[in-house]
Every structure is written in structure tokens, then in C-alpha cells.
Amino acid sequence: MKNNYYRIRKKIVVIPIVSLVSNYAREACKQNKGLEFVNISPIRGLNNHDSSLQKKIINSIISHPNISGALLVTNDHKSSQDYKNNIKFFKKPVETISLLGSKGFKKFFINSKKKINKIKLKLKNNNKKKKDFSLTNLCVALECGGSDQTSGLFTNPVIGMFVDYLIENNATVIISETAEFIGTENIIKKSTTNKIIAKKIINRIKLKNYLMIKSGIDYKGINPTEENLNEGITTLVEKSLGAIKKAGKCNFTGFLEYAEKPKKPGLYFMDTPFYTPISFTGLMGAGSHVNLFGMGSFNPSSNPIVPTIRICSNPNTIKRWGNKIDVDLSYFFKKGNLEQAYEKLKEHFIKIIKGKLTISEKEKSGEIIVPTSSFPL
Amino acid sequence: MFVVLNNKDNIGIFLGRKRNLIINNKKINISLSTKYGHKFALKNIKKNQAIIKYGEKIGQAYKHIKIGEHVHIQNLK
């Protein structure tokens, strides 16, 4: 996809391909300047589906538009060779190193340094012209956290206005967390022109609802979460009706499986679990450049590769957690001024795209969690 | 302060301070248990009646709810 060539960040990362080597990979990362360590704690013994998802997520990190180069750390020599054979597909400087193949720690760290320098040199000599900023090449992911009344009332409608603007300008936008669409089936049916897509989304929402009921678990306190309940959200449908405001006009172009990449611009629905870090991981897998994260009560989640813009309108949350929020809309919320809130969000968004760091980036926080469907062998 | 999101709604959202309100020519006393951002009944709601927010059904009353009363887990599911 086009957006693979448009970068809003130029991260060079060290990625352990199997968690056995995590500590030494982290150490190799620390010994070199300007690198970031990305750990998804990959394990062995997963069933087929889980194993291919794990691999898919690792590959999505390497190929992610915010990553300009990567050192992959394996344990054995053979997996290192396997990756080496596929490096050309990433079309960026990627090197591999195996711990055991290095025959001792001293050599491992020396060789790591050599490979990292090689990546840096390749990037330095890369004369490819930087693409001009254009919304058409941009993929934006939407999330909400700690939903409360201000979310459905103000924050999400403001994000929705911005999403309409992005869609009009040919950007790609992905919304996720299937469980938080339960109760919005009629809205999707009415607003989505492509009836096949609408049906696909609605069927997946129905399936999620069925699975939640069938599990026999009372999800009250889990979803809606304790935070939602404290803030006055009572039912999951009530939460959903607030959450869907993020989608603006809500005319879906496509449906994506977990971590699937969109093929052309438009508004997409991705089927993801409702736990925020897992949902963020799926959105990252799709190659989203940036997350718009609307929150009511504070939610500390973020992603280490995809800059996460925290947006909040709740004056109480701002009072307590204001220094951890990127876009404070509480002033405009009190005035009931959607238009100015939208302008503020847009202005901040452009700054982040052009390189200003988000709060979670400054803190180097964020997690990548790959969901599994069964107990490993 | 309060807000009603859709004219089909039978609940409003309390946004602090004044609890004695006049909404659609009706006097409403918002119960003290209704915290900031929580819902209150705009009219008397019978048991099993739908609770409407954003113009859509968000659940059902499992108790009678009086006008001005806090609407949450103790009477809505």
C-alpha cells in the first residue's frame, strides 16, 4: 500500500524474534544510540493460528511505515537465516543476528553494533526524496478509553468531525473493538452505503454479542468497565452509542480482520478484542501511522510504534491527569463549542504528524500484546 | 447544568451544580445521588419501560423510576 512509503517517524528498532533473547537484545539496544527496543515477547509452541498471527505482527512491525530500520535478534542461527532470506521484501535496511550463532556475548554485542552501524549508514546514504505531507497517504486509527458521558457527548463527536474531514481528503481511517459496537447495528445499517460491507460488520457484531452471552460471564465491571460505571455509563449499548460517534458519518468502505491491512483509502471497521492494548496492536498491524485516543476517565494505554494522541474533555480528568493528556478539550466542552474543539484537535494532529512527540512517546511507554486462542504446547 | 441529547430521550445528563431545574415546563429535582455526568429521569418511568438516550434504547428499567431520580445500575439494565 502507498502509505508504507510515507513516514511520520523514523524509528530504528531492535526486535527479539523469540523472547529467549529479550534481555540480551535489550542490552544490545542500550549500547547503541538512537535506537528503540520493541518487545512483543514472542513464544514457541503456539498453535498454527496463533503462531502465524505472532509472525504476522512481527512482520507488521518491521514493515511498519514508522520504522525505518530494524535489527532482528534470534536465538539460533537457522531462524536468523530464514529472516535474512526474506529481508528484501521489507524494502528497508533490516539486519539479523543470532545469539547462539555469535559464539559468546562479547562477539554478540560487537556484531550487533556492527549491524546497527550498517543500518544507520544505509539510512544516511539513502537519497530517496521525502514524500510531501498529504492526508491521502495517511492511515489513522481510532480508539476510546475510560468512556464516560463527556466521551459520547463531546470528545467522540469532535473526533467524528475530524474523521469526516480525513475521509473527505482521501485518508484511511480504522475504528475497532467489536464488542463496543453492540447496539449500533441499526446506525451502521442506515449509514453505510455498501450493503455487503454493512452486513459483514453487523454479522461480526452479532457474533461477538452471542459469544459474550454464551460465555456465561457477567461482563458488567469488565465491559462496561468499573471506570465506565463510576462515570455514569450503565450499559454496553449506552457505551457503544457514544463510541460510534468517533466514526463521524459512519459510512464504512471496508471490513478488516485483526491486523489486516486496508488496500485503499476510506473508513474501515476492524474486528478486535475490547482490551485497549490488544486493539492497538491490531491497528498497528494494519499499518496505522497514528492513533486518536479519546478518553473520559484516564486510560494510560498507548503503542510504542504508533504515536498515540490522548484527547479528553472531562474537566475532572484534566484536573487530575492533565499533564498526561495531549489534547485538552475541557474548556470547549464547558462552552459547548464543538467547532473550536475540532480546530484545536486538527491543529495538534498536524503538529504530531510533522514530528512533535506525543506524551506517551516522550515517556517511551506503550505495549504490544498479541492475543492467543489456545494454551501453547 | 444538564443536557438532553435527543428529543426522544427520557433521561438527561447532569453536568453539575443546580439541581432544581425546569425542563419543558416541568419542575425537576435531580436526586442528590446523581453525580456529575450521570443520568437522571426526565419523567416517571415504569418498570420494564425502555431507557432512551441518543434517541436509542440503551436498556430497560427494572424498577419504577421517579422523575429526577438517578438512573444507573440500581434501576437500569
Shape of chain A: globular
Q: State Rg of chain A.
A: 21 Å
Helicity level of chain B? under 10%
Secondary-structure element order of chain B, as H and E? EEEEEEEE
Kindly state the percentage of residues in helix of chain A: 40-55%
What does this structure look like?
The complex is a heterodimer of chains A (377) and B (77). By secondary structure, chain A is α/β, with parallel strands linked by helices. Chain A has helices at 22-30, 48-62, 77-86, 105-124, 149-168, 185-191, 195-214, 226-230, 236-243, 276-285, 315-321, 330-335, 338-353, 359-362; strands at residues 11-16, 35-37, 67-74, 94-98, 139-145, 172-175, 254-256, 266-270, 290-295, 308-312, 327-328. The longest helix of chain A has 20 residues, at 105-124. The model of chain A has no long low-confidence stretch (mean pLDDT 93). Chain B has a single domain (2-71), classed as Archaeosine Trna-guanine Transglycosylase, Chain: A, domain 4 (Roll). In chain B, 0% of the residues lie in helices and 36% in strands. Chain B has strands spanning 2-3, 11-14, 20-23, 26-29, 39-41, 50-53, 56-60, 70-71. Chain B has a 4-stranded antiparallel beta sheet, with no helix packed on it. Classes of the chains: A alpha/beta (377), B mainly beta (77). The interface between A and B is medium-sized, with 20 and 19 residues.
